[in-house]
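A quick aside before the break. I want you to see a complete sequence-to-structure record at least once, exactly as it would be stored in a machine-readable document. Don't worry about memorizing anything.
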Amino acid sequence: MARSLNFIDALNEALHQEMERDERVFLLGEDIGVSGGVFKATAGLYDKFGEERVMDTPLAEGIIIAAAIGSAMVGLRPIAEIQFTDFVTPAMDQIIQQAAKIRYRSAGGFDCPITVRICCGGGVSGGLYHSQENAAWFVHEPGLKVVMPSTAYDAKGMMLAAIRDPNPVIFFEHKKLYRTAKGDVPEGDYVVPIGPVAVRREGKDMTVLTYGFMTQVALDAAEEMAKQGVDVEVVDVRTLNPLDKDGILASVRKTSKCLIVHEDKRTMGIGAELAAIVAEEAFEDLDGPIVRITGPDIPAIPFSPPLEKFFLVNKEKIVAAMESLAKY
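That is the input. The structure line, written in tokens, reads:
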């Protein structure tokens, strides 16, 4: 049976259910226990499962991830929270040099089944150190799976899939989705496979490749374009590593036009890889240029609301790009 839940409640339900199902699962992170997390993603878990399975940690991201890796290597299933993606840099050595490489360096002798939950994204006047997205930092690394769901249904199903995966999974959660993305979520157990794209809106005139909160913005823009007679297909990439090339190319070959949208900075971003895939493998199917709408190459999202608005991708920017591409 499905009910309507918002994104963060769907995540919370996934954590509850998997901790009940599998006693190896435990949580660790800053403020996740007694207070239930700064956004309340872990609310109620400390009271239900106790401090041995819901562990408040020091403000030390490197130690959080190192402890998760060590516990995973002896058979546990840790879920580590990085409170904001801006704070992940002290844990980069553990994630990139250890978690991503354990299976390779041990010739398959060890798995590293950790799930790293990372809150990300702008739009709430969080300023420089509470607003970045930065998924591109991790998609470059073989050995890591990287996901960024856009719906409440996927939030629960992909979280359950991530926890059960024998590989390290970096699970990005855009804060703008926490209480704005709502939808039907089954009460019972289900998984959304890590890998395949999801076509959120069928269309025939152009493809939008996007993920996370930008999926919702792109859908709004597509509805605006429908009033002009332009039928836009919106593809939620949602798994950023490994990319579903077949799903991406199938949509682009169908519509013959490709617009790529993401919130993160432009240069060497995920959109650049998506564009390269389309250019290399579907060039002859294209009727127009590959277009990217992204955040600018500015060190971080400003605190000032007008400057933050300048930085962020919005419906108006996407519609303008769609209108331009539709002319080809």
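Two observations worth writing down. Residues 2-186 form a domain with the Rossmann fold fold (CATH 3.40.50.970). Residues 7-21 form the longest helix (15 residues). We'll return to this after the break.
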